[in-house]
Design goal:
The complex is a heterodimer of chains A (52) and B (557). Chain A is built from one helix and no strands. Chain A has 52 residues and is an all-alpha fold. Chain A has one helix at 25-50. Chain A has a domain at 22-52. Chain B has two domains: 3-296 and 393-549, Sodium/glucose cotransporter (Up-down Bundle); 323-377. Chain B has helices at 3-23, 30-35, 42-53, 56-69, 80-89, 91-98, 103-110, 113-145, 150-197, 205-214, 233-250, 252-259, 264-298, 307-313, 319-346, 349-377, 387-395, 400-436, 442-464, 473-497, 503-523, 529-549. In chain B, helix 1 packs parallel to helix 18 (400-436). The model of chain B has no long low-confidence stretch (mean pLDDT 86). The chains are: A mainly alpha (52), B mainly alpha (557). Chains A and B meet through helix 1 of A and helix 5, helix 6, helix 10, helix 13 and helix 21 of B.
């Protein structure tokens, strides 16, 4: 039995535009990740504030 | 339902169907019908993605779940933004550049036809079941409000969705979703405002938070790790991320949304919008459930929230005894809650603690009486899904009730339309065109897509009639997804990241992954969010093992 990988597909022409803000996509991802981390931290504070 | 409620509800339904038909015009080619001609802006895709995910179950069951168990269900979504970032960086550009109609079409190019067919079949099974459950939720609504049989309302919903989805394809689905999501968000704000407004005038918003917190209802983060616990921060971050990766990366009902984007950047923005908006939205919905709980601390709830079953059990001989226990527990709880607030205002910590203890004991007694009431109906009866609706129909003013009901309809229709549209796409592109009619004219596939949309709509309606056998519907839907998503995710991980794994590794890896998930479900008590992690890991491990055990030919230049 042979398990043969298929050849890579040729990359069609579709440009990877930069984001409309923050310059690069990794910067946008970092901002989203920080936002979510802050949100979870706020929820944790909320849980602690009202826990008996 | 008062006349104004009927006008609001039917007016909204007529608007959505008409708008969907109008927006769906010009969908005469396969590319327009299935991919909206790749013209969609990010906000339309983003709202459509959220609308497809936020089914009616979200409103009916999540609020009830918060009432019963607190807000910790929100942790289920903590992994979603992580998944959105990963998919924006990987799947979005890969699928766009592959210029495919479905995610599974890509698998044939990367592996072979049998892997594509296997994964397509898995999708059709699990999404077909999910579509049925999504339709059942509004049937629950109308059975409560109108006293109509579930079957009638299920058929009504299914027909409305089939009209605009089969006519306009994904363009109709997406633009209708935009308005449906806007209504949903507006109604959420209104519902929370109403429940806070309806609290007794002596109870401030801060008091309501204290009472909900004292009963463990304000617990959006629980850090204790437990394999058997479905919702904690660890299962949410890890298991939830894997589930979201599978749902948004491998489920055609979501992939098809961002394949309609004008560009890679627009599709990425739609996913990142979802990453930022989803958790606050779920928090908001759960918070409504927690406030409804506080409302019913002061306003006596019915023994059963299901009005038909409530009327039935009132005729049983054991009812008066259960009712007496329930009434006594409610009176004790209300008294303890008032003492708790009075001690809280005085700053008397010892009295506050004592009142909190009585408050919780009374809650336990109330829950025991409620459970005894449920047992009068049948051993497995659970009325969690009726809690929010009971509040809406009994206490909200005319017009608002119709609006909330319209929202639940909207949520169900947006989910179901996306689901049957994607089911039709996979049926036609991955099955029919691939295996039966590869060379038919383009118009033939448009007609086939319309017919299969109607077929899947009918299938969902039929399956929805089994929905009454499930308890909390949202968990049932997620459970169905988790049985299959781990395998789907694993094969895409192999495709994207392990170039030396070939077709056999992928195909048998999926089978091994699914076997592992079903074994975990059958023989262990592991929380279902972990099935995605287990399934994905087994697929990848099996694929790598097969690739290592079998010699690979050199790639042709």
């Amino acid at each position: 039995m042979e398990d043969q990988p298929r050849p890579e597909m040729p990359p069609p022409e579709m440009p990877d535009d930069p984001p409309p803000f923050l310059g690069t996509w990794p910067c946008v991802y970092a901002v989203v990740a920080c936002y979510v981390a802050a949100l979870i931290f706020l929820f944790w504070l909320f849980s602690r504030a009202f826990a008996e | 339902m008062r006349p104004l409620d009927w006008i609001v509800m039917f007016g909204w339904l007529a608007f959505i169907v008409s708008y969907g038909l109008w927006r769906g015009r010009g969908s005469g080619t396969t590319r327009n019908y299935l991919l909206a001609g790749k013209t969609m802006p990010w906000y339309a895709m983003g709202l459509s993605i959220m609308a497809t995910q936020a089914s009616a179950i979200t409103f009916i069951s999540t609020t009830g779940q918060s009432y019963i168990d607190g807000m910790r269900f929100v942790q289920f979504y903590f992994g979603l933004p992580v998944a959105m970032i990963i998919l924006s960086a990987t799947a979005v550009p890969i699928f766009h550049r592959a210029n495919v109609y479905t995610a599974y079409e890509y698998l044939e190019r990367r592996f072979d036809a049998k892997t594509r067919s296997l994964v397509s079949a898995i999708f059709l099974i699990q999404r077909g079941l999910g579509a049925g459950l999504s339709l059942y939720a509004p049937a629950v609504v109308l059975s409560v409000i109108l006293g109509w049989p579930d079957r009638v309302t299920t058929v009504l919903m299914g027909v409305l969705v089939m009209i605009y989805t089969s006519w306009g394809g994904i363009k109709a689905v997406t633009w209708a979703d935009v308005y449906q999501m806007a209504l949903i968000l507006a109604a959420l704000v209104l519902a929370l405002g109403m429940v806070i407004y309806l609290l007794p005038h002596t109870v401030s918003f801060g008091d309501a938070l204290s009472l909900a917190g004292a009963m463990g209802r304000l617990n959006p983060v629980t850090t204790k790790f437990d394999w058997d616990d479905r919702y904690n921060i660890w299962s949410g971050l890890i298991g939830g991320a894997f589930l979201a990766l599978a749902y948004f990366g491998c489920d055609q009902s979501q992939v098809q949304r961002y394949l309609t984007g004008k560009s890679i950047a627009q599709s990425r923005l739609s996913l990142l919008f979802n990453a930022m908006a989803k958790i606050p939205m779920q928090f908001f919905i759960l918070f409504i459930g927690a406030m409804v709980f506080v409302f019913f601390v002061f306003e006596k709830p019915p023994l059963l929230f299901h009005p038909v079953e409530q009327a039935n059990v009132e005729r049983s001989t054991a009812y008066s005894h259960v009712r007496q226990s329930f009434d006594e527990a409610f009176a004790h709880r209300r008294e303890a809650a008032e003492d708790y607030l009075a001690a809280h205002r005085r700053g008397d910590e010892a009295s506050r603690q004592a009142a909190a203890g009585r408050y919780r004991r009374a809650q336990q007694d109330l829950e025991a009486a409620h459970t005894a009431g449920e047992r009068l109906v049948s051993p497995g009866f659970n009325d969690t899904n009726f809690i929010f609706l009971s509040f809406v129909t009994r206490y909200l003013p005319a017009g608002v009730v119709g609006l909330i009901v319209a929202v639940i309809f909207s949520a169900a229709m947006s989910s179901t339309s996306g689901e049957i549209n994607s089911l039709a796409t996979v049926s036609v592109i991955d099955i029919y065109r691939r295996h039966f009619r590869p060379d038919a004219p383009d118009h033939h596939y448009v007609v086939a897509s319309r017919l299969t949309t109607i077929f899947w709509g009918c299938f969902a309606v039929c399956f929805a009639n089994f929905g009454r056998n499930f308890g909390a519907l949202i968990e049932a839907v997620n459970m169905v997804g988790s049985l299959f998503y781990g395998g789907l995710l694993g094969v895409f991980v192999l495709a994207f990241f392990f170039k030396r794994v070939g077709a056999n590794g992928a195909f048998y890896g999926v089978l091994a992954g699914e076997a592992a998930i079903f074994a975990a479900n059958r023989f262990t008590h592991i929380g279902f969010l972990w099935y995605n992690v287990i399934g994905c890991a087994v697929v990848v491990a099996a694929g790598l093992a097969i690739a290592a055990a079998t010699p690979a030919k050199a790639l042709p230049r």
